[in-house]
Amino acid sequence: MAYIYLHEEDLQAFIDKLKSYATSNADELTDVRRVNNQNDDPADIRTTISDSSTAMARSAALNLVATNLQVRLDEAVEMNSNGITPMDGEYISYYLPDDGEYADDTVANVMAFNSQSVENGTKDAEALQQARSSRDGVAEDGRTVEQILDEMAKHQDVPAYGASVVEAFGGMDSYLATCCNYSGTTPQRIPVAPTLMRTVWIWQ
User: CA-CA distance, 199 to 204, in Å (whole number)?
Assistant: First the structure.
């Protein structure tokens, strides 16, 4: 598994300065456009300084870079504050797979394998408990125990998913007790595979 490390204070300072610079550029261009229009475009630059101009596009691009960096930093802060991802000195981290189609460091992938995985793990763990306790073996979302276990198996190597599953079961002891119950009643099936258990053991 791969962890991407960030320095929270330094990166936040860089993001703030980048946003400020981009906003300042856009504001200055807006002022120039206002004055230019008031004087009936004397230099014939109305198109050059319009909202669709290259200058405005560059300011918007800088803002987007800052926004995307903020998402990564926020994800790392959340995962670290919950004890899901490791630290290295003053550096915090977020998780991405080592390889495959989701290994690229995009905003969508970062969110999917961190905060969204926490939400998914909690949802699946709660659904599993609902299905186990219902008379017909079906959760409120309509999934059976086997369907939920199949979904859990797809995400068993994602640290954020594993940590949220264990937390939803009430901690490591309750989770392991549930695993033992499954191994006794449903051959070869437990909620999450050993890889997840190793991750959560470290997390605990």
Answer: 9
Q: Contacts for 3-6 with beta carbons within 8 Å, 24 or more apart?
A: 3/85, 3/86, 3/93, 3/94, 3/95, 3/96, 4/72, 4/76, 4/93, 4/94, 4/95, 4/96, 4/105, 5/88, 5/91, 5/92, 5/93, 6/72, 6/73, 6/76, 6/91, 6/92, 6/93, 6/94
pTM: 0.82
What span, in angstroms and rounded, lies between the C-alpha atoms of 89 and 23?
Answer: 33
161-176 pLDDT, tens digit each = 999 998 898 888 887 7
Do the Cβ atoms of 124 and 165 come closer than 8 Å? yes
Question: Could you give the CA distance from residue 107 to residue 51 in angstroms, rounded to a whole number?
Answer: 26
